[in-house]
Amino acid sequence: MPQALIGFLVQIGLSQLAATLVATVVTIGASMLLNALFGPSRPKPSDQQQNIRVAVGSRKRHYGIVCTGGQETFYESRNGTIAKVVTLGTGEEDQILEHKINDQKVTVVGGTITDAKFRGAVHIYTRSGTDDQTAIAELTAKFPEWTADHRQRGCAHAAIIGDPVKQKYFGEVYNGQIPQYTQTRKAAKLYDPRKDSTMVIG
Q1: Domain segments of the chain: what residues?
Q2: Nearest by Cα to 66 from 84, 45, 91
Q3: Which of 71, 82, 100, 190 could pair with 77 as two cysteines, CB 3.0-4.6 Å apart?
Q4: What are phi and psi of 201, to 5 degrees?
Q5: Which candidate, 47, 70, 42, 75, places its Cα nearest to that of 58?
């Protein structure tokens, strides 16, 4: 098409250079229009709010206030207790603003969800991704294959542990599904030169 367009433009009186430039602009414009109409869609914010289970996943670093799930890096069930670790991001992250189970905000005190419907059976333990963080001892105590060496240094993560409950409460607590965890937080810590004592302002 560009060659035919150039030939047409030359016939109506444009120079070869001008015809080539016009044809290039028209071709790029048409390509952008077709891509906008039929190209792949951009990921929605909700696409990041899922937990994925893959053998080797990619690391993601988040900035600003985010709500994400992450990669399930541990998943096990034993004697009615279920546990999983969700790795949320790379690098030390700042402050947790909200914990969510199945897209519902929950209150966590001392690692235990205190909302009445969970009956104290679901626990969330977190690490912020520091270089010297320890493994989550509450998880290691119940699942010894998650050892003290599983520190995930430099990766923010959360362990979700679901204790067994009486059958009559099972539907209320677990609603027929494994708890899906997401977290709203201030993500990766960044250097702020305004707080540098060596910098003189003014």
Answers
A1: 2-38, 45-186
A2: 45
A3: 82
A4: -110, 130
A5: 70
